[in-house]
Fold this protein.
Amino acid sequence: MLVNQFLILGAVLFCIGVYGVLARRNGVLVLMSIELILNAVNINLVALGALQGPEAAVAGQVFALFVITIAAAEVGVGLAIVLLIYRNRTTVDLDEVDLMKG
Amino acid sequence: MVAQNISFGILALVATVAALRVVTTRNVVHAALYLVVVLASVGALYILLAAEFVAAVQILIYIGAIVVLFLFGIMLTRPSIGSDAGLDNDQRWIAGVTGLFLFGLLSTVLVDSFADDHLPSLEGVSREALTAERGTGAVGDAIFSTYLIPFEVVSVLLLAALVGAIVLARRD
């Protein structure tokens, strides 16, 4: 298998995630798009590790595990923030959260 | 080799279509369910790359925990469970152009740098050797020797995130 198959699939998922972050206005859906981006990065880590031999394969897997852990922490805090926005403004529409807009 | 390429093609197609549905569907709950399909396909791709522990963690943490968290978030924020036309903002076209431009850039660079690099074939390697050098045991050894300090830091980070989430979400 070519390593580029995996890397280009990672690029596709990354760009779909970027589109989601930019185009969605619901806070929960923006967090889901961020998960797509993190998954793309994980595919790249594991594929590039497998390209370089056994030791790099293990290193790539370990880094992918760390990214998964941090993604879990990020979703926990992110959803708590979205919940707080909903409680204060009864909406999760990110276009209406423009208090800091100049 | 052919079987691996066919399964890669199917998984990549499923992941791409489901990811597109995550960012375009008009129903928030459907978006979370399409996310499950994307995450499961990516988990299967890890098995294709001989990373079985990452695949198991992907299923356990992502599908088992994170998607459930998303569903709870959707339920608690109630952005009308049915379909909703107002999920996208009016920057959709700019966002699409940005995504396509980024993909063109990334794929050009990737094709340029990794033109024909093949992943090392694992067909001649015995299963015992494969497990010993990059299986779950090898990953565990690496985490608790080479990557011990990052592992401990991640534990503290998880604790901090837990406390932070509770502090943010509790009602006074």
Observations:
- The mean pLDDT of chain B is 89.
- Chain B touches chain A through 85 residues (CB under 8 Å).
- The two ends of chain B are 59 Å apart (CA to CA).
